[in-house]
Amino acid sequence: MSDIVRTMVLWVPDWPITAAVRAHRLDPDAAIALIDKGQVFACSAEARIEGVKRGLRLREAQARCPDLVVKTYDPVIDARSFEVIVTAIEELMPGVQLLRPGMCAIRSRGPARFYGGEKPAALALVQLLDELGIPGSRVGVADGPFTAEQAARTTGRTRVRVVPEGESAEFLAPLPISLLELPPLVTLLRRLGVTTLADFAALPADDVLGRFGETGAHLHSLSSGADSRPVIARIPPEELDAQVAFEPPLDRVDQVTFGFRAAADRFVQALVGAQLVCTILRVELDTENGETSERSWLHPRSFTAADVVDRVRWQLQGSGEVDTGLTSGIVRVRVVPEAVDAIGNHEVGLFGAGPDERIHSGLSRVQSMLGHGGVLTAVVGGGRTLADRSQTVPWGDRAILTRPAAQPWPGRLPKPAPSTVFPAPRPVHVTDADGQEVRVDDRGAVSSAPARFSASGSGRESRSITAWAGPWPVDERWWDADAHRLSYRFQVVDASGIAWLLVLEDDGWSAEARYD
Amino acid sequence: MATGQTVRELQDRIRSMQATKLDSRLIPTHPAIADLLPGGGLKQGATYSVEHSATLLMALLAGPSQAGSWCGVVGVPEFGVEAAEGFGIDLERLVLVPNPGDQWLAVTAAVADVMGVVVTRPPKRASDSSLARLTARLRQRGSVLLVLGPWPQSEAMLSLSESEWSGIGQGHGTLSARQVTVTVSTRLGGRPRSARLDLDFARSPADIARSQADMTQSPALADRPELRAVV
Question: Domains plus CATH for chain A?
């Protein structure tokens, strides 16, 4: 049994919740639930007291605990915030293997020698986590990661459990078979009357191999306490991010960008040195009063040093001008490459890349004047209203179409589409020949034929209607009280030959678009 | 009538002899409109002013866009994207700057640097010197500027009138086809030229362009050799 490695496993219970609290700056004592695919994926202790548990549907969880703070589960946040913890542990004891966000394994031999025993080493680890502001972490020490993980999960008040060498089998024996993470096998074993790990371990190894294959044999050796998996220490990734701290804090956009220029050059050079280019960049800005602004920026190709400086500037200035002051001083700017690609895929060709490059740099210049969202490209998506159908994307970003245009979308406007679509609908008055306002009753019938409408909304400058069509009801999302929208659309042509798209809703008539 | 004809011919000759610049290259546009324009098309580096009609604007943009030009629209937040696609404008080569604010002139110039056709709507009158700078830049880059509204040095003014819709009645039907009169008047005087245009939305814009090209045999289009990129 010489190939079994004494292992320490650190486990932070409810890591997704801890990560979400840190990322979204939530109150750690609140009832929080993370939702994945409409079901509760993880919940805080407070929520658990109220009866929320994993696998519950969102509605039911909210019914059980009305002040539940609901967030969408994001595995990226999980992994990203655990990365900080792993780096901190690596400074304390080397050779950390990340098992999953919230759990990591460390070979215990070195730390045990250094701290004078496995228990002191484990306590040092728990203390480190407490110092980092992560309460409730547990550590288990045993033969192999599997047993150590179970030991970490069964610690009591001490938060550390050490299973002495060679006693893994006894420790694992009473534990239920469901701990093996292979649901089909677990179900089958239960049906066969095998309910604890000891029962499973008691089966002859050859028979298990013959019946359940390699995977089964592996789980069999786990449950008998012979976990031969080594702890493979991760190679700490190369530090590619760049940061600049400003002392005293700077409160002007141009000062900050100028101060970051050299760091941006170093950032891109370091990437080139690693034969990489950055395609997604994350910019983090820390302000004097402790706020952090974080945003990812996409690039159609790859970031150059000037592009990096531009992104920092856009994030700082928002929609303001270049020389606007900031509300609070910037103390730190950090850029992190979120996605990188091999430099070979991004080499500029000899031919063919010219005009596109020129247009990109020209538009980037406009973006640096107006902000990132000032220059848009448009995509026609699906949907019934005009606003739904035309979606704009800032130059350089990728369009995310939630409503595919290929679907039929019954109730959308027939062609031709109006050439002028008002950004905000303009209120209008539509009256019949007697001057009464035209209404549509519950059955969708018009009270009288529209004869005049005023485009200004005030009632003056009224135009006479020469032809009209409608009402076309659009009854969207009637099952959802908040998102329900019932409107009637009309096409009218005025005396000058210009056609209008008028919409009647609960709060009156408005002009949505013009066919001019 | 005969006298008028002679006078016009003589005026044309005088104008051609007075032209100080070399023949500038034309950008293809809707053939029926191109016939009305002085020179038979949109001239590179020239400015055209379009009177309050997004439809006319899109009809003008469709040709260059299909021919591979990039189009920029500055300061027109209500530009109907779906209609633009219906006219055959390639959305992948269409860039919108809806709210340039006070910097519209700088933005227009920056966009004109890289795009073949730029649409802008001046929120206010700019100074003559800045307009002259913009005009010089357009000439240098060979871009066409289409202005929604009046513009002091435009090559031609385009307007749309006598619009007639068909397919819609009193409480029934839908807007389906439209006939309009496009009128082009030039800076140098002369009689405004106009043509009746059929905007039939049931057919694809490429079909319309083709059929009208056959009908009118616009020299600007017919003489253009068909070029194909060899990759």
Answer: 1-10+75-237 (3.30.70.270), 242-347 (3.30.1490.100), 420-515 (no CATH)
